[in-house]
Amino acid sequence: MLSYKLFTTPTCVYCPKVKEFMKTVTLIGEAVDASTPDGFELAKKFEVSSVPTVLFFEDDKLVATAHKVDEIKKILGQ
Fold first, then answer.
1. Is the CB of residue 61 less than 8 Å from the CB of residue 25?
2. Closest CA to 7 of 45, 44, 39
3. How far is CA 5 from CA 24, 61, in A?
4. 3-class DSSP state for residue 21?
């Protein structure tokens, strides 16, 4: 089953659009604030170097990465 992690920061000007779109997606996932200590550590673990970044997982294996709504739609087949 496909799931996701959405990495954002409060000051990112591109994040709100991706965040709002991800609210419409029927996948299990979580938003991660990469500006917090825990979020930063998780971002480092997955080598996330910019926001917004959406990581898609299948059976806990990273299968795709997206940064824009059109990229997300392509991954989801929309």
1. no
2. 39
3. 14, 12
4. helix
